[in-house]
Amino acid sequence: MSDFGHSSAEKEARRTTPGRPWTPQEEPRQDALRRYLAAVASTASARSTEESEPAAGKERAEPSATAAHAPSAQVPVVLHVRDVMQVPAVSVPGDMPFLDVAHTLAREQLSAVPVVDGDDHVIGVVSESDLLAKAAVMVEPHRHGPVGRLRQHRLYEKSHGDTASTLMTFPPITVHPAERVADAAWTAAHARLKRLPVTDHRGRLVGVVSRRDLLRAMIRDDAEIRAQVESLVGQHLLDPRAVEVTVEKGVVTVAGRLDKALVPELLASVRDVDDVVDVIDETETD
Predict the structure, then answer these.
(1) Distance between CA atoms of 223 and 216, rounded to whole angstroms?
(2) Which keywords annotate this record (predicted)?
(3) Which residues contact 6 (CB under 8 A, 6 or more apart)?
(4) What was the pLDDT predicted at 215?
(5) Tens digit of pLDDT for each residue in 20-75?
(6) Could you give the angle at the alpha carbon of 109 between the alpha carbons of 219 and 215, nearest 5°?
(7) Which of 232, 11, 231, 206 is nearest to 121 (CA)?
(8) Mean pLDDT over all residues of the chain?
(9) Range of lowest pLDDT (76-90, 134-148, 260-274)
(10) Pairing status of strand 243-248 against strand 205-210
């Protein structure tokens, strides 16, 4: 992971850090958020690199058969939205009354829900924020202050609606089942959305993917990271038992007695493993 990715993740995490002391559950959550944001930053960086490469007159070389089938080749598993999305997806029709939409969100414990037409095409998304604005208008129909009214004119006008289609936010931001999880995560982060409707090529609802689904797919736990690092150790050393590998919150510690010439290459390989935050070298060299 690049220094840019780490820096971007740390800055974003600091902005979300609460002023009060963290609970025991908060530190792991913040750590996961930092790793998630770093993964999104890495995806954005990779996109920029791909887009900056000159395409005119140059074709990308195909990998040779020998390289493709080499035993040491590590082919990363690319997850797609269809692998992590929730099916079936909860939705509401455009003519559903305001109170019924509120009851649906409460019953399903959702923060937002897609709004569909008669053919299941996603036409918008209605969220808790939309319903909260509607409730505020019901309590106080006439808002005070012309500046505030002008600044949030669209929200104010929309809140006078009584059905899902008049309260919803549109056009909806959606993703396709074949889209990569990393790209969907970038879309969710950029749009600051907790849930994304998943639609087919005709715009019909086929599922929903949440930010939590994307987070779990992108960030492996320490046990999975350790298993891959131990596999790498086995490729570099004749006796893998000479090295002890521990992983805590994505930080890999490598300990043991090794040939001095092998250490730099081994540590470099470990740093390239996905979701490794840092590598601590506690090896002793001969």
Answers:
(1) 14
(2) CBS domain
(3) 38, 277
(4) 82
(5) 454 555 565 556 666 666 666 555 555 555 555 554 444 444 444 433 333 333 44
(6) 10
(7) 206
(8) 76
(9) 134-148
(10) unpaired
CB neighbour list of residue 206: distance below 8 Å, 6 or more residues apart? 85, 87, 89, 177, 198, 199, 200
- Residue 127 · residue 111 · CB < 8 Å: yes
Cβ atoms of 186 and 44 within 8 Å: the answer is yes
Which runs of E-coded beta strand occur in 134-194? none
- Please state, for a pLDDT cut of 90, what percent of the chain lies above it: 30
Whole-Å CA distances, 27 to 166, 220, 226, 273:
40, 17, 21, 23
Listed in order, strand segments (DSSP E) in the chain are 92-93, 112-116, 122-127, 195-199, 205-210, 243-248, 251-258, 278-285
The torsion angles phi and psi of 124, rounded to 5 degrees, stand at 175, -175
Residue 13 confidence (pLDDT): 42
Per-domain boundaries in the chain? 81-216, 222-285
The Cα 193–Cα 129 span in angstroms is 12
CATH number of 222-285: 3.30.1340.30
> Six-digit token pair at 69?
């089938």
How many CB atoms neighbour CB 71 within 10 A? 5
Q: Are 33 and 13 in contact (CB under 8 A)?
A: yes
Same fold, 81-216 and 222-285: no
**Residue 141 pLDDT:** 62
For the domain 81-216, what is the CATH superfamily, name and number? CBS-domain (3.10.580.10)
The pair of structure tokens assigned to 160 is 């006078």
